[in-house]
Design a protein that fits this description.
By secondary structure, this protein is an all-alpha fold. 96% of the residues lie in helices and 0% in strands. The protein contains 1 helix and no strands. It is rod-shaped and about 200 Å long.
Length: 142
């Protein structure tokens, strides 16, 4: 083979290799383009997930504030309930004291009524005897 033929053959081989590399390059570019689109899609999804995460964090913060408010209210209600229980106990003690005093006064009144009844009996006896004496005096001639 001549020198020119060898050069031509090498050139054809190089040209063939270049053509193959060009096709490989096109394939790689297509793959890169597809990967780029996939990456853009993933980035979009990631951005949406980030926004969702921010929304969830905001909701969680609001729920935390609501929980703090509820806990404060619960604490206040507990204090009010304790005060009411204490007031109820004080009122019960006062009622018990009053009931004891009423029972004591009732006993004193019963004793007083017994004394009054005895006095009334004595007065009735005296009245009766005076009435009898008055009648006897009226019957006497003057």
């Amino acid at each position: 083979m001549s020198k020119e033929e060898k050069i031509l053959e090498k050139l054809e081989l190089i040209q063939s290799q270049l053509k193959e590399q060009g096709q490989t390059m096109k394939f790689v570019q297509t793959q890169l383009k597809e990967h780029g689109q996939t990456l853009e899609f993933v980035q979009t999804q990631l951005k949406e997930h980030g926004q969702t995460l921010e929304f969830v964090q905001t909701q969680l913060k609001e729920h935390g504030q609501t929980l703090e408010f509820v806990q404060t209210q619960l604490k206040e209600h507990g204090q009010i309930l304790s005060a009411l229980i204490h007031a109820s106990e004080v009122h019960k003690a006062d009622n018990d004291k009053l009931a004891h005093q009423v029972a004591h006064l009732s006993g004193e009144l019963k004793e007083g009524f017994k004394e009054v009844t005895e006095i009334q009996k004595s007065l009735l006896e005296m009245y009766g005897s005076h009435e009898a004496e008055i009648r006897a005096l009226k019957r006497r001639p003057v």
